[in-house]
Write a structure and sequence with these properties.
- The protein has 126 residues and is α+β, with helices and mostly antiparallel strands.
- 18% of the residues lie in helices and 35% in strands.
- The protein has a single domain, classed as RNA polymerase II/Efflux pump adaptor protein, barrel-sandwich hybrid domain (OB fold (Dihydrolipoamide Acetyltransferase, E2P), Beta Barrel).
- The chain has four helices and nine strands, in the order βββαβββββααβα.
- The longest helix is centred in the C-terminal third of the chain and has 8 residues.
Length: 126
C-alpha cells in the first residue's frame, strides 16, 4: 500500500499536501482500493469557504457513494476538472493526477492535528 511520507492524512482517509498557503486534497490509496472502481467525483463547493470536517463533495464507486470531508478549514479554490471526464484517475494515481481540490487554508494550525504517514499506517494496522 502506498502511503507517501511527505503527506498528512485524516482518519477519513483523505491526504493533504501543503503547497505554501494552499493545500491539495485527495483520497488515499487505501480509500480508493476500498471504494473500488470510481465512476464519478462530485465537488460543487469550488469558491465556498468550509469548516474542518464539513463535506466538500462525494465520490461514487460501482458499489457505494462516500462523502468527502474537509481536513482543514478554508476556501475551495480549485477542483481537478480532469476528474469530470476521467474519475478513474483517482484509482490509477490517487496522490498525483487523481487529486481532488485545492484549498486556501484559513487556520494553518489545523494542519498540526492531521496524521503523519506513521500515524496513518498505525490507524490502518499496517
Amino acid at each position: 500500500m502506498n502511503i507517501p511520507e511527505e503527506l498528512k492524512y485524516t482518519k477519513d482517509h483523505e491526504w493533504v499536501r501543503v503547497e505554501g498557503e494552499n493545500v491539495v486534497i485527495g483520497v488515499t490509496d487505501f480509500a480508493q482500493k476500498e471504494l473500488g472502481d470510481i465512476v464519478y467525483v462530485d465537488v460543487d463547493t469550488e469558491g465556498d469557504s468550509l469548516e474542518e470536517e464539513e463535506v466538500f463533495g462525494s465520490v461514487e464507486a460501482v458499489k457505494t457513494v462516500s462523502d468527502l470531508f474537509m481536513p482543514v478549514s478554508g476556501e475551495v479554490i480549485a477542483f481537478n476538472e480532469d476528474l469530470e471526464d476521467a474519475p478513474e484517475l483517482v484509482n490509477a494515481d490517487p496522490y498525483g493526477a487523481g487529486w481532488m481540490i485545492k484549498v486556501l487554508v484559513s487556520d494553518k494550525s489545523q494542519l498540526d492535528g492531521l496524521l503523519s504517514a506513521t500515524d496513518y499506517k498505525e490507524l490502518l494496522g499496517v
